[in-house]
Amino acid sequence: AMLRLRLLTWDVKDTLLRLRQPVGHCYAAEARAHGLQVRPEALGRSFREVYGAQSRRFPNYGHGQGLSSRQWWLDVIKQSFRLSGVQDEAALTKLAEKLYRDYCSSHNWEVLPGAAETLSRCRQLGFCMGIVSNFDNRLEVILSQCDLRHHFQFVLTSEAAGFAKPDGRIFEQALRLGGVRPEQAAHIGDDYSRDYRAARAAGMHSFLLRAAGQDEGPEVPPKHVLPTLSHLLARIEK
């Protein structure tokens, strides 16, 4: 392409990996294994409410507020169950520990169609590759478990960076890690403001993964939209 790209940075959740089942269903199944009956839909609603509140109160996993991401997540999980009517604190502690560990594994994550092939091809084309993700420090393990880690020179999480997308400073760190200028890099992700617009604001190129028929959202030039990951290669082939 005329883009002269050297570095590709990638979002993870819903770009390369997705959850195998909704959080509420996963949490409810774990509760059942501990002899507790909780409705998946109720848990899903509780989780969304608690996750939103925790994210506003302690942004980026409580980085800079003295929380570890592990403690942040244990609190979210316990509070989600409490809000769904579970009162047994001993059970809550066990559930939270188990679910925190389970989300480290390929047991709960699957690779999106076309992701592995696209990453392999990008590597063969000689691009430097990195992850830029609003994620906690479990991400390295998750990527290894899902057999994607080897594609990347670096994995930059918002927890490690100290900044979360759309903050431009996480992209600046990625550019330093890749050793390139912004115009030599492109970011690929599924979120308009955190991925597409934020990378462009940092001076990078970017592509928005947006499945056909997905609610359209803001206007994006067609050549920047990827209906599937496999479409990326036509946009960047050297």
UniProtKB/TrEMBL annotation:
Q: Where are the bilayer-spanning segments?
A: none
Q: Which GO terms describe its cellular component?
A: nucleus
**Top-level taxon of the source organism:** Eukaryota
What's the family? Belongs to the HAD-like hydrolase superfamily.
- Which protein are we looking at? Haloacid dehalogenase-like hydrolase domain-containing protein 3
Q: Which organism is it from?
A: Dicrurus megarhynchus
Primary gene name? Hdhd3
